């Protein structure tokens, strides 16, 4: 490590995001469900049920209208999900919003396909014409249908590139650029319904509802994807102040700016970053803060993954940075008291390192588990040592290659329970159970006793019998490393598959699902 930032807590004057009431999530869910019920009720009020009962081509057309209404409603809800609305980001987190966005996106797409097929079949049946001739006639003679065809083509391209097999073959920049066509697709596909759709024009209530939903969705995108970032960047004027190398392929970028104490960002959150250093600056990348924000300087740490991230190491002081955010719900707001366990893998340790400086735990209440392939890949040693000495954090290294099964543990520890356990709960972990972390004794952390943590048991999970806790090698090892995992808040960050395995282990070890906090940055 060529440089380090001494961990500091955010001073009282630093801006904070306001805590969002938990009931807001319920309200949002109810509102989304009601929107689907409303469009269904509007269809019923326009005679949809009677037409279906009547049978024939009219029933096919009526069903096509209903699938079109559902598709339109879900498309607009999908836009709202990814409009980066701050309150939604704080309540749900961007990873959960992205999952819902994906599910709703595919659902609305297939409803749209059903709408097209059923409407064409219904119209062709009513006119007793050829299906392909009817489709051609609709495209070229119905108002707005050319726009709808272009919009549908854009949405098809987005859906195809969102399939996991195709997505893995694309660079992030390419996928992100193609995904922006979803906005164009929605914008082009919906107007034909607003102009000529029977269910949109059937009553003033229908017209007002659809125009309002369309305007709210468009307004949210313009406000939060364009307006808010422009205002924030004009206000804070972020500039690269220095760039340091933390390890092989790992670079930290320090940024300064104006009024950073008024930037409402929390440890654990991330921004979409653009650096104005030449061609390619328009492509944004999500990078977390790797140090607790304190109002004077921000730090992000980037791993060279072969895409646009490779440019970060060549940044020079003075380069302007554009940031969009902050995003993410992996913050101290989720902590309700008690022990905390932070488990990170690879570059996933960066938001956890920032969280380590902000969480209000007491000495002996925090455990930091660092999963890496080798000692050379372990970054921020000096800062981790600082937390161990000054805040009583227990550090555990788990080093080694991946296991040949889904596991959060290294290969040589994943096959059996408690293989990775140190001789004492305070012992640092390394590649092998009998090897101490370089520069340390093979006993407790400096300043700590070589025994169990105060108030902890070396054996069973507190408050539970062994018979009540499911047995699983990964969960057993986690219980051995962190005996009070069942009453802890667990913060996890790393690759998607690794995080899923770590979450499973934590929950099987007794941690309540609501106390396991994750944030995924995969796309």
Automatic annotation (TrEMBL):
InterPro entries: FAD-bd_FR_type, Fe3_Rdtase_TM_dom, FNR_nucleotide-bd, MRET, Riboflavin_synthase-like_b-brl. Its main location: membrane. It holds the Pfam family Ferric_reduct. It comes from the Bacteria. Its cofactor is FAD. Residues 233-333 form the FAD-binding FR-type domain. GO terms for molecular function: oxidoreductase activity. Keywords: 2Fe-2S, FAD, Flavoprotein, Iron, Iron-sulfur, Membrane, Metal-binding, Oxidoreductase, Transmembrane, Transmembrane helix. It comes from Actinoplanes philippinensis. This is Predicted ferric reductase. It is a multi-pass membrane protein. Residues 416-477 are annotated as: Disordered. The chain crosses the membrane at residues 23-44, 64-83, 103-124, 144-166, 178-196, 208-227. It is found in: Membrane. The keyword Metal-binding applies. GO terms for cellular component: membrane.
């Amino acid at each position: 490590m060529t440089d380090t930032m001494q961990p500091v807590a955010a001073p009282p004057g630093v801006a904070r995001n306001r805590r969002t009431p938990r009931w807001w999530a319920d309200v949002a869910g109810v509102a989304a469900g009601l929107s689907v019920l409303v469009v269904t009720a509007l269809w019923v009020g326009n005679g949809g049920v009677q037409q279906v009962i009547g049978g024939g081509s009219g029933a096919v057309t009526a069903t096509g209208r209903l699938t079109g209404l559902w598709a339109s409603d879900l498309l607009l809800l999908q836009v709202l999900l990814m409009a980066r609305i701050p309150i939604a980001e704080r309540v749900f987190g961007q990873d959960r919003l992205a999952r819902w966005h994906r599910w709703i996106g595919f659902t609305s797409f297939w409803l749209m396909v059903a709408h097209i097929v059923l409407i064409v079949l219904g119209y062709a049946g009513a006119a007793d014409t050829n299906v392909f001739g009817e489709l051609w006639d609709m495209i070229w003679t119905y108002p707005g249908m050319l726009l709808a065809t272009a919009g549908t083509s854009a949405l098809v391209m987005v859906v195809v590139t969102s399939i996991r097999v195709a997505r893995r073959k694309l660079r992030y920049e390419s996928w992100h650029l193609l995904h922006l066509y979803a906005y164009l697709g929605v914008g082009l596909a919906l107007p034909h319904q607003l102009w000529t759709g029977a269910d949109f024009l059937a009553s003033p209530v229908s017209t007002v509802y659809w125009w309002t939903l369309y305007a709210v969705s468009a307004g949210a995108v313009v406000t939060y994807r364009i307006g808010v970032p422009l205002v924030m960047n004009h206000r804070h004027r972020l500039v690269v102040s220095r760039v340091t190398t933390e390890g092989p392929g790992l670079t930290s970028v320090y940024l300064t700016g104006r009024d950073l104490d008024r930037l409402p960002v929390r440890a654990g959150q991330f921004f979409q970053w653009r650096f104005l250093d030449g061609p390619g600056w328009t492509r944004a990348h999500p990078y977390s803060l790797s140090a607790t924000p304190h109002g004077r300087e921000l730090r992000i740490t980037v791993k060279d993954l072969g895409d646009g991230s490779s440019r970060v190491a060549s940044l020079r002081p003075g380069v302007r940075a554009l940031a969009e955010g902050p995003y993410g719900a992996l913050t101290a707001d989720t902590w309700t008291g008690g022990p905390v366990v932070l488990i990170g893998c690879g570059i996933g340790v960066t938001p956890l390192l920032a969280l380590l400086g902000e969480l209000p735990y007491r000495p002996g209440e925090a455990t930091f588990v660092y999963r890496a392939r080798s000692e050379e890949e372990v970054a921020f040693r000096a800062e981790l040592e600082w937390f161990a000495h000054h805040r009583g954090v227990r550090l555990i290294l788990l080093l080694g290659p991946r296991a040949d099964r889904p596991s959060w543990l290294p290969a040589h520890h994943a096959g059996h329970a408690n293989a990775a356990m140190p001789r004492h709960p305070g012992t640092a972990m390394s590649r092998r159970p009998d090897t101490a972390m370089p520069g340390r004794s093979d006993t407790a952390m400096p300043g700590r006793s070589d025994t169990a943590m105060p108030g902890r048991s070396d054996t069973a999970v507190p408050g539970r019998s062994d018979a009540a806790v499911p047995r699983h090698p990964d969960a057993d090892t986690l219980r051995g490393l962190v005996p009070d995992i069942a009453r802890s808040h667990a913060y996890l960050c790393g690759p998607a598959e690794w995080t899923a395995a770590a979450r499973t282990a934590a929950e099987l070890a007794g941690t309540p699902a609501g106390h396991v906090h994750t944030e995924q940055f995969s796309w």
